[in-house]
Structure formats: structure tokens, C-alpha cells
């Protein structure tokens, strides 16, 4: 994954120029910053900072993290990100030195998390968030498979694409398309105000971590 995204960093943003994504992106450019406005935000797997530059102007402060140095180099050059601290961080081991936040965002990241590692990722993320924090995950819909078909499925159900790059290399990339029920089950005891929005090219999953105003949903009786 790191080698693949390091190699793609210089032209990664082309994914946002696909004409069929224009309408979804117009909605997301409004919706995402509106939902995070006024909160300190931790961004995970920020890549080249495409969403960082959209969110930063609406929030007091932001930490944008990625585990690969090459895309971060581009993210640091984004305009209007003076209130953003960029750093290398593994999404599965977000360091306490980042601090505590009131919201989190991850774009096109959750689909790369192995099924067996989802809970560990959420533990790492939620440990950096205060009660009542808002979380947004944006990702690709299965529409993407028209261009990049699923070519493998492993024993735990993770799916893989073979992605060619212009330099002639081919990369085996884990890319999952989680069902709404799987996402809801993952956060069921920790979150409220859970929303899933299906767009043509993307899905968006949003929730608020429990606090007094939004108490934990008790698990149903066995
Ligand atoms: C599809 S890109 C998403 C970039 C950006 N968030 C966006 O929406 O355009 C996935 C990113 O995940 C990063 N990544 C891979 N493994 C990671 C890890 N363990 N922790 C944090 N980021 C990771 C890659 O470097 C890459 O920038």
C-alpha cells in the first residue's frame, strides 16, 4: 500500500477529475466541511491533502496524517492550510502526541482496512477523540469496480484489485466495499446519529461518539 501510494503521489489527484464524479463532489464539498465546522479535526490517511484543503478553512485547527511521506509532501503545499499540522502517522497506531480532537475524517481509507483490522483502526482513532466527537468516512462505491474489477477474495472476505501504474508496475491493492450493516455493527455500542449516504460514486458514513447528550445504545438481549 505504501509503495503504491508513494508511486502515485504526483498524479493521485486525477481521481477527482473524472467527469462522472463531478456531481457527487459538488455535494461533498459542501456537506463535509459543514458537518465538521467549528471542531478540531484529525484527518487520517490524508494523502495529497485533497480533502484537507476543503475542510481546513472551516475548522479552528486540524491535524492531517498519513503513513506515506510522498503524498504528505504534496499535502503540505496545499493553500489555505495554515491551521493544519501535517505528520506521518500509522492509522492503526495514532500517537497520543497528536492530542485529542472533536472530529475525525478519513477519505478513501476505510476501504483499504482489512476486515480483521477494522476494530483495531477504530480503537486507535477513537482514542484520539473526545466524547461527542463526530466521525466521517468517505469512500468509493462499487461503481469503481467497472474500471478496477475485483480479482481476488481471501479467506476472511477481503477483496483485491490489480492496479497498473503508468511506470509499468502492477499493484495488488486490498479494496473492500463494506455493507451498511457491517459499518453500523462496528460502531453500534459506541455511537449515535449514525448516517449512511449512498452517492453514485461514493458512500459516506457518519456518526457521533457517545456522550451524555447521545448515550450508548444498550446491546440487545441475547
Ligand atoms: C486512497 S488514498 C486516500 C488519500 C486521501 N485521503 C483522499 O481521500 O484522497 C489512501 C492513503 O492511505 C495511506 N495509508 C496507507 N497505509 C496507511 C496507514 N497504515 N496509516 C495511514 N495512512 C495509510 C496512503 O499513503 C494513501 O495516502
Describe the protein's topology:
Elements: H1 2-8, H2 22-36, E1 41-44, H3 52-55, E2 62-66, H4 69-75, E3 84-88, E4 101-107, H5 118-126, E5 129-140, E6 150-153, E7 159-164, E8 170-174, H6 180-187, E9 191-198, E10 202-209
Parallel strand pairs: 1-2, 1-4, 2-3, 4-5
Antiparallel strand pairs: 5-10, 6-7, 7-8, 9-10
S-adenosylmethionine binds at residues 1-2, 5, 45-47, 50-51, 66-68, 71, 90-92, 107-109.
Q: Could you explain the architecture of this structure?
A:
The chain is an alpha/beta fold and 222 residues long. The chain has a single domain (2-209), classed as Vaccinia Virus protein VP39 (Rossmann fold, 3-Layer(aba) Sandwich). 23% of the residues lie in helices and 29% in strands. It is built from 6 helices and 10 strands, in the order ααβαβαββαββββαββ. Strands 3-2-1-4-5-10-9 form a 7-stranded mixed β-sheet, sandwiched between helices. Strands 6-7-8 form a 3-stranded antiparallel β-sheet, with no helix packed on it. Strand 1, helix 3 (52-55) and strand 2 form a beta-alpha-beta unit. 30% of the residues are buried. Bound molecules: S-adenosylmethionine. The site of S-adenosylmethionine (SAM) has 18 residues, from helix 1.
Brief write-up:
The protein has 222 residues and is α/β, with parallel strands linked by helices. Helix content is 23%, strand content 29%.
